[in-house]
Amino acid sequence: MGQVPDKVNRAVFEPLSLIVMKIICVGRNYSEHIEELGNARPDTPVIFLKPDTALLQVGQPFYIPDFSSEIHYEVEVLVKVNRVGKHIDKKFAHKYYEEIGLGIDFTARDLQEDLKSKGLPWERAKAFDGSAVVGTWISKKNFDDLQHLNFSLMRNGSSVQMGNTAQMLWKIDELIEYISKYFTLKTGDIIFTGTPSGVGRVETGDELTGFIEDNEMFKLTIK
């Protein structure tokens, strides 16, 4: 299991303290992922937050933390908010983002299951330092239909997750409408829109590569 040296902690995380933004995550937004974890299908989107310190700096590896023996990858389509908004109607939601991306919501699954069994919040399992990978951003104008985007995650050259945004229970604009009822969206906020089935454990030495259609969005080494 990898350890995070003190000097790496300082190099990776101190600059991020200057960033003022929210990372808003959506859970249980793909039916097959709900089934693979044995969760109940929600009636409304499941929302949780990660702090800005969860953001892994571009180009840095992910170090497996010592408090978990079961860190899982969860690849997700991302949306970057480009203006301030509150109580946004779905028909106007498309105006609040110009770029999409791909990322990983790293999850300490063993810790999450323990917290869930006790009815406690998930933050320690979902919001720890470096748990949010954000890849390259790309203009949404490059795609004909954001509701039919293919995306995938490769682990050591083999496909482990494949999804299409058509499989979302709640589409991007619906999520923006729902989230903005509770949280004011601000420029720079990032929305993780949920993961498809195929999540799994990472090991030291793994290389993870994410794609939207044929566009490589990130490449990451596990240490």
CA-CA gap between termini: 8 Å
Would you identify the CATH architecture?
A: Alpha-Beta Complex
User: What gyration radius follows from the Cα positions, in whole Å?
Assistant: 16 Å
One letter per element, helices H and strands E, the order comes to HEHEEEEEHHEEEEHEEEE
Helix content: 10-25%
Q: Under the CATH scheme, which class?
A: Alpha Beta
- The average pLDDT score comes to 91
Low-confidence stretches: 1-18
Number of domain units: 1
Number of helices: 5
Principal-axes shape call: globular
Biggest β-sheet, characterized?
A: 7 strands, mixed
CATH topology: Fumarylacetoacetate hydrolase, domain 2
| Secondary structural class | alpha+beta
Residue share in β-strands: 25-35%
The CATH homologous superfamily is called Fumarylacetoacetase-like, C-terminal domain
Instruction: Give me the count of strands.
Output: 14
Gist of the model:
With 223 residues, the protein is an alpha+beta fold. It has helices spanning 6-13, 31-36, 109-117, 123-126, 172-182; strands spanning 23-27, 46-50, 71-73, 75-81, 97-105, 107-108, 132-134, 138-139, 150-155, 158-164, 190-192, 200-201, 207-212, 215-221.
Structural description of this entry:
- The chain is an alpha+beta fold and 223 residues long.
- It has a single domain, classed as Alpha-Beta Complex (Fumarylacetoacetate hydrolase, domain 2), CATH 3.90.850.
- Helix content is 17%, strand content 30%.
- The protein has helices at 6-13, 31-36, 109-117, 123-126, 172-182, and strands spanning 23-27, 46-50, 71-73, 75-81, 97-105, 107-108, 132-134, 138-139, 150-155, 158-164, 190-192, 200-201, 207-212, 215-221.
- The strands form three sheets. Strands 1, 2, 4, 5, 7, 8 and 11 form a seven-stranded mixed sheet that branches.
- Strand 13 and strand 14 form a beta hairpin.
- The longest helix is centred in the last third of the chain and has 11 residues, at 172-182.
- The chain starts with 5 loop residues before the first helix and ends with a strand.
- Residues 1-18 have low confidence and may be disordered.
